[in-house]
UniProtKB/TrEMBL annotation, chains A, B, C, D:
<dbReference type="InterPro" id="IPR005235">
    <property type="entry name" value="YmdB-like"/>
</dbReference>
<dbReference type="InterPro" id="IPR029052">
    <property type="entry name" value="Metallo-depent_PP-like"/>
</dbReference>
<feature type="active site" description="Proton donor">
    <location>
        <position position="68"/>
    </location>
</feature>
<feature type="binding site">
    <location>
        <position position="40"/>
    </location>
    <ligand>
        <name>Fe cation 1</name>
    </ligand>
</feature>
<feature type="binding site">
    <location>
        <position position="39"/>
    </location>
    <ligand>
        <name>Fe cation 1</name>
    </ligand>
</feature>
<feature type="binding site">
    <location>
        <position position="181"/>
    </location>
    <ligand>
        <name>Fe cation 1</name>
    </ligand>
</feature>
<protein>
    <recommendedName>
        <fullName>TIGR00282 family metallophosphoesterase</fullName>
    </recommendedName>
</protein>
<dbReference type="Pfam" id="PF13277">
    <property type="entry name" value="YmdB"/>
</dbReference>
<feature type="binding site">
    <location>
        <position position="179"/>
    </location>
    <ligand>
        <name>Fe cation 2</name>
    </ligand>
</feature>
<feature type="binding site">
    <location>
        <position position="39"/>
    </location>
    <ligand>
        <name>Fe cation 2</name>
    </ligand>
</feature>
<dbReference type="GO" id="GO:0046872">
    <property type="term" value="F:metal ion binding"/>
</dbReference>
<feature type="binding site">
    <location>
        <position position="67"/>
    </location>
    <ligand>
        <name>Fe cation 2</name>
    </ligand>
</feature>
<feature type="binding site">
    <location>
        <position position="154"/>
    </location>
    <ligand>
        <name>Fe cation 2</name>
    </ligand>
</feature>
<feature type="binding site">
    <location>
        <position position="8"/>
    </location>
    <ligand>
        <name>Fe cation 1</name>
    </ligand>
</feature>
<keyword id="KW-0479">Metal-binding</keyword>
<dbReference type="GO" id="GO:0004113">
    <property type="term" value="F:2',3'-cyclic-nucleotide 3'-phosphodiesterase activity"/>
</dbReference>
Length: 274, 274, 274, 274
């Protein structure tokens, strides 16, 4: 099974690039399942219902999010209406929306996707991501109710990301980090068979600070005073993601490689899909 | 001019891999200058004088460090005796050792190397890294007292790293991040001609948590209680670094590409050096 | 019912002062119940079994702790043997020891004591303190299984402390903060009848940095480099705590006032007990 | 010399209480000098020019601030026009306004007032508060260009506050902390003669979370999702501050005691002024 994950879409340039390229990628690469993180799709801050719908239209099977999920007020309500929208699972019970779900891939496989947030340097008041993952895996184990299991682990610290990967190693198909907006080159298949990559990077303008226009962030580092607002950068976007080949038999990963398309970073397509 | 930077050596497996491979890399790739970060070389915590000397013997021109610089007590004294050893420049005045220096490359070029630490999520009590860089660049501008300028920016947050890159863009040859122990795939040449990469990754065992044996870090995430000590992992190391081709004329970067050698990550050598 | 809470005993000077003065206070003030925080009693770092036992001998009904609970390795085992020892309740299930318990006061009242840790600026990986408190209160509500309920809320941020107070207001007799080692003067009875004080302060040497010898902490703020170790200060201790008069009928608070005995701070005894 | 310091005015209720009571306090207590922290005077966020002027009219000799100084955009410009307005001194050079100044007290004494911000848990990117204080004290030493020296040290962590106190002990008349909005009871005269208190508390409604309406802060702790905005509480305010008697001869402190007037906390006036 061929699964593609695309990192945080940032602003108009990021989401437009995904909308334009994703349909072609799905048909060219014969993708069975696509997950896209959309937490920064609306000008860098959250996601609107229209953007969500357009991303699903472009071929995403699931849209995940992260700490920016509620930046657009409407997310609090539309998250309840759309089955393919995930917010981090480790919000407390009673939070609108859901953090995981089982979805059907184009090849008929049942894919459990879970969106979990890290806490280190991030969002200490969320529930324990490890406990949260354990509950999700217990309720729907790989090889039983799920043919593949994917975690979008939205976190800052590489230690927490790597430990999370080891924690679910052998019990999930794929763990991919998001949130730093920088793609890492440490993709590997862990000892137990789980594909792992610390961060997928973002889909956005890499001539920027995390996809945001660099002027104000740089100003704040230098002057320590706000001058303007944070706005999404609007140069051409580079799409960053990662492709994983998942065994139909075991649900574990067979291959993992990055996908990058755009002007700023080294372009690459998983060679096992070419 | 051909410059190679290698990320944080972690533990015995990391430093041994560097010592074994670096001499061959220098001759095979005709390297003019090599910088190695050594802050975790002694069992994950700091660096001893012997390890420093062995690293210089293996061909490093400069050894940089980071937040772990003082973990081995002896560093406080030996840092004063060795010219090619750098601690972060933004420690307060009066701190032993030095944070930057000008060194001669094999091709005769004067290379300014500076080691600076970020503050976000890290070490808030250090001096401002941006002010610190400004002072270093003013005292020794590119094209005047320096033919090449390299910053090892030891930091956690990608926002701070990227803003730092933009801050010195056009005034330095190369900014490379260290500290997360995960190589990033965002190497690029910024608009002003400075080569940039958010993190070089580590030289260590990538079947681990940041190069440390994963058992105790994972235990702490799960049980929230210490059980044992943090120890360096001892599986085979992957060397992670980055190569930059610097213009002899302008001191700015012409090419940048990662270098990775070892069993866990995708191996690669800058193709412009093959 | 007369309840006395004493803040974190720090080092030998702090614990000795408590052991010497507590028996007299209990008889002079006719105290029904005494809780003492002991997380820094062993040289500033954790607590040993001997210190725990001596504190119980001196008249404490319960010893609470905080983030330093496991600093002395032996705590991991002795916490299981001693009924009157509490570690923070919001450690994950499976953690040795317990975070709350019901104890009998000298007047026969059943006193529920719970030790909970805040997360802001502190210990993000613990379970949600608010959820944790809710579970404790549901299992043993005031006026049903408990005649009085006391929370030692061990936390850094005043916002989290105050919100915690409001959260249990009317459902607990008393919320007292610990951890900052500085007594606050904001004791009051909240609208619902719960006595509240942001921090009890410590029992230790107030010519110090948080009860620790001030030389090394000050050195680190100035030089940013470790020079020596952190050691408890050894000047004469000031005992800091707070007294609460709890209604035998409702279990809510009728009076609250600080208690401070020692050379450095303004001495005071709750006037309603004189 | 009689100096009164009042903690952060929060919102309309806080500033109004100060405006109403300060003139009477100045005449009744024969105050020579008054400093008021105004960083939350405008609805909890920053301060406007009108509020500043009214506070000066009410008798404040200096208005200090903190991390909220720039919340109201107009502060960036009016800070330049008003001599008695201070922002934290450890903003980088080039920041509008000033962080310290020498002012004349009613008794003719020259009073150096400096506003400095801590960094721990706060604002890591500011300049080192200790270095900043050193520079201020060197330029204008006690007993030479200044007859009294007061620091408003705006910080979160009690360790940083206490170490700051020890750092300037014997070289300043008075160090008072602000920012936690909770008055502490640890006022004392340090060994070298400097009066010290970890936090002055706020002038605001103490039936709140830090002076803000408690509903939204509590909601965020419970639900982890924003529901509304943060708004200043509007119940009756308690004025919190501290009085210091400073020797006309040495500039060091002779007496220190809190001042609290209002409905929620125990009222008190320095007894040496009665
Ligand atoms: Fe993001
Ligand atoms: Fe994020
Ligand atoms: Fe490192
Ligand atoms: Fe580091
Ligand atoms: Fe403590
Ligand atoms: Fe503590
Ligand atoms: Fe404030
Ligand atoms: Fe503040």
């Amino acid at each position: 099974m061929r699964l593609l994950f695309l990192g945080d879409m940032v602003g108009k340039t990021g989401r437009t690039a995904v909308w334009e390229r994703l349909p072609g990628l799905i048909s060219d690469l014969k993708l069975d399942f696509v997950v896209v993180n959309g937490e920064n799709a609306a000008g860098g801050f959250g996601i609107t219902e229209d953007i969500y719908l357009e991303t699903i239209n472009a071929g995403a099977d699931v849209v995940t999010t992260g700490n920016h999920v509620w930046d657009q007020k409407e997310a609090v309500s539309f998250c309840e209406r759309h089955d393919q929208f995930l917010r981090p699972a480790n919000y407390p019970s009673g939070t609108p929306g859901k953090g995981s779900g089982v979805f059907y891939a184009r090849n008929g496989a049942r894919v459990l996707v879970a969106n979990i947030m890290g806490r280190v340097f991030m969002h200490p008041e969320l529930d324990d991501p490890f406990t949260s993952a354990e509950a999700i895996l217990s309720a729907c184990p790989l090889g039983e109710q799920a043919d593949a299991i994917v975690f979008d682990f939205h976190a800052e610290a590489t230690s927490e990301k790597q430990c999370f990967g080891h924690f679910v190693d052998g019990r999930a198909s794929f763990v991919v980090g998001t949130h730093t907006h920088v793609p890492t080159a440490d993709h590997q298949i862990l000892n137990g068979g789980t594909a792992y990559m610390s961060d997928a990077g973002m889909c956005g303008d890499y001539d920027s600070s995390l996809g945001m226009d660099k002027e104000e962030p740089l100003n704040r580092f230098i002057s320590k005073m706000p001058k303007g607002r944070f706005e999404a950068a609007h140069g051409p976007a580079t799409i960053c993601g990662v492709g994983v080949e998942i065994s139909d038999r075991t649900g574990l990963a067979e291959r993992i490689a990055p996908l990058r398309i755009g002007p700023r970073l080294t372009e690459t397509i998983p060679d096992f899909w070419r």
